[in-house]
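Work through what follows:
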Amino acid sequence: MTVSIRTEPTAETQGWRNEDERAQRSSQAPPTRPEANRPEPATPTSLGSADRFNRVGAWVARRRKRLIVGWLVAAVFLAGGFAANFSENLTAVNGSTPGSESARVITLLEENFGIGVAEQDLVVFESDSLSIDDDRFMAVVANAITVVEQQVATSDIISPLDPDGAGQISADRRAAFVSLSIAGTPSQRQSEALELNEALAAIGTDGVDVWLTGESPLHADVDAVAQSDLAKAEMIGLPVALVVLLLAFGALVAAGLPLLLGGVGIGVSFGVLGLLSYFTEFSLLTENITTLIGLGVGIDFAMFIVSRFREGLDQGDSPERAAQLAVATSGRSVLYSGLTTIVAMAGLFLLDSPIFHDLAIAVMITVAVMVAAALTLLPAVLAALGHSVNRGRMPRWMSSGDGAERRWAWITTKVMKRPGTVAVAGGVLALSLAAPALGLELGMNSGADAVADQPSGKGLAVLGENFGEGWVSPIEVVFTANDGRFDAEVASVNTFLDELGRDADVAGAGIETNVGGLTAGVIDQVDEMSAKLPLIITLVLAVSFVLLLAVFGSSMDYELFLLGRMREEWERTGDNATAVAAAIQAAIFGAFAFTSVIDVQQVGVALASAILIDATLVRALLVPASMKLMGRWNWWRPRWFIGNRIDYQQLRGATR
């Protein structure tokens, strides 16, 4: 195996050419480097990372059968044995913020009252024809209270028929509710809510409806809807992705491979997360968002590996050599693109919020699995398939083929003629699209809209119409006397309670006041995100820049594949304009916009919009224009910086 790598820039590639040389060069065909056809030997110590990927590709091609079998065994073992555990043990979103005032309320309640982590839930009754004074209505309420009392984790049960429950009957007396507390961890409360909801389902009659609502009942129903939404999104998104891939590849087998990688990767990832579920909890949104991002990056990675493999076959490489070269070139971009995503998700650990930690862990594991599958399983399958990857060719009119490449090349050519104008206009447009983010208001959604037809949603609607939704998320205020006792300070507490609607303040009265509850927890979490977001963005960009500087000298995540191909063309021709028209990338996230849970909708729409803007405004206009303006500075980096310049044409010669 031979490969030529220059560790020092030459005058041809690093020095500034004068205008006469540039004009003469532009009128000639791109030169071919003599050494590209005569690969020079290189010692293993000088090979650098490109050779390591080259050797990985060769290893994968030689051991393709073992790798395929190994991945199948891992998929069956992990997905079949543990993926269900991941889905079944998803819990309510933990919106607490450690160290916040609302978190202190939870601690004080547990230490001083033994309440633990409790929430107020409600059993809601409604009748179109009966009032609560009717014996039949009262019998339903009594039966419901009996069912609630039989649950181990319930306490503080207040009936609307008790003296303390006078405010729990509507003005027309056709709606009422029983208030109760459910204690335990988020998963325990959700499990208790499911059991209680099932028991209460048999209590209702033709004249009186009974629904359980509250934080955990809502989350339990949202979880069920999210599971259904996931299946619906896959039924929409995967066929759309297949059509896009068919248009891109023009062959059924080649188009199916990215979906195969995505499916196997998601299955293995869910299996790993299922194993972790024995030791930690994941929120119910993790499954949808993990699937969303996993399919997106999996299809992206596979598209580039498959494209490079087919390119190798077209240039006369054997299947083994084509698979080796695909890993040696695009595999490098896949790895560093995956690392950038992992670094970005790791930034979420800077937030003191369990929900973001769970999400970061799940996405990081999924992306790591997708990278591993793209670098081993996929090239192994390709090497085994060989020329069969082109089976199932579609009619010529169905394939984007050369036409799409000509359209992208035409756009790039137009950009190259007026790079300054395009850069300024594109920059103004990008800033205009980004400006609304300055007024972005953060918050959390209860998911009630998604479960309007479920018991918790119906109960919440009755509360909103007759009592106000605040009953589901009451404010919790804990008073602590500074000297450990309440004596004269009780008057200050009573004053505070009387004037709570006017935000009275008892500071200075010898009492520490802490406000908690669901709403306070959301406010604390929003404050945490707002305070840490600039730090997260800065650190993620800085670490990603250093990481990618070691690869190409510039770039960022989704531009990595584009710049990788551009770099190859630059190494081959030295012509920056030719290098720009070298790559295309696509991703499908929009299907999740059709789900019912608004949080998942927002993520789907946000990612789909980001990809659309990246593929059009950024990649087709701003990147080519800026690279034309920067010229050789695109590839500049300090001589002392790690990494070697890689001659990709030489690398191709080394694999033959």
About this structure: The chain has 22 helices and eight strands.
